[in-house]
Amino acid sequence: MTAAADITGEHAIALSFSGGGMRAAAFSYGVLETLRSVRTADGDLLDDVSFITSVSGGSLTAAYFGAFGP
Question: d(Cα 67, Cα 11) in Å, to the nearest integer?
Fold first, then answer.
């Protein structure tokens, strides 16, 4: 049996995006862009996102991020 992969780096970030239609999608996109702008020794905080939960409008951004990455 293979050991589980370590999916977290120095930071482990969990995101939860709420619903609310296009406003929620836009807000969650802003959160991802802000995490991308915060630099760390290994890249940016967006690289440290381990998982995302979402509902409704927030799911639009979460699904895109899950499918295509940063």
Answer: 22
By three-state DSSP, how is residue 42 classified? coil
At position 20, the amino acid (one-letter code) is: G
Q: For residue 44, which phi and psi values (nearest 5 degrees)?
A: -145, 170
Q: Does residue 30 sit in helix, strand or coil?
A: helix
pLDDT, block means (10 residues), the chain with 70 residues: 62 90 95 94 87 94 92
Q: What is the pTM of this model?
A: 0.81
Residue 51 has φ and ψ, to the nearest 5°, of -160, 160
